[in-house]
Amino acid sequence: QDLEARCLLGEAFLMAEDPAAARQAFVEALHLQPGAARGFYGLGRAQLMQGSLPEAMAAFRRVLDSEPDHSEAHYYLGLVYLKQQKDQAAKTCFEQSIAIDPSHAQAHYTLGLVLVNEKAYSQARAAFAKALELDPGHTKAREKLARLETPTEQL
Question: Which whole-number Å values give the CA distances from 17 to 12, 40, 102, in the listed order?
Fold first, then answer.
């Protein structure tokens, strides 16, 4: 049982939406290699799925301590902040994720959500449009963009 196998198992559990089993697999991976960024990244995702926000935040920060250019860790840390209604911190994380990986459609979309909260509608429109350009099947981005195009409708 090596780190790779434990992490792959954890990722399979995440895909199956079984965060408790995923969490266990990533904890086991971290016992095998205590500082492994991949283990902390998976653990953070499992904790986020379980609603354990402080623990998820700590895990994503551990990833970023060793891999500051980890686009996905910035993105997921932004989700933690968004769930905590810390929009400015979330916005910063999504912007960092996009700076590292401009093709991250979901980061553009969630940045758009924060911009709507800030009533920065023009910037939100651009973020949703970029998400849709990168992922033409992104129905939520398409819906938000359509609502922004209709001035009388609320998001």
Answer: 9, 18, 27
Look up residue 126 and give its two tokens: 């651009």
Scanning 16-70, the segments in alpha helix (DSSP H) are 19-32, 37-49, 53-66
DSSP assignment, residue 51?
T
Cα–Cα distance for residue pair 3/25, rounded to 1 Å: 10
In terms of Cα–Cα distance, which of 74, 13, 75, 22 is closest to 47?
A: 22
> Residue 33 in contact with residue 26, Cβ under 8 Å?
no
Q: What is the pLDDT of residues 9-18, one digit of tens each?
A: 999 999 999 9
Residues 96, 31: Cα–Cα separation, whole Å: 30
Spans of the chain below 70 pLDDT: 1, 151-155
The DSSP code sequence of 67-105 is: -TT-HHHHHHHHHHHHHTT-HHHHHHHHHHHHHH-TT-H
Contact 39, 63 (CB under 8 A): no
CA atoms within 13 A of residue 35's CA, in its CB half-sphere: 4
Kindly report the pTM of this predicted structure.
0.92
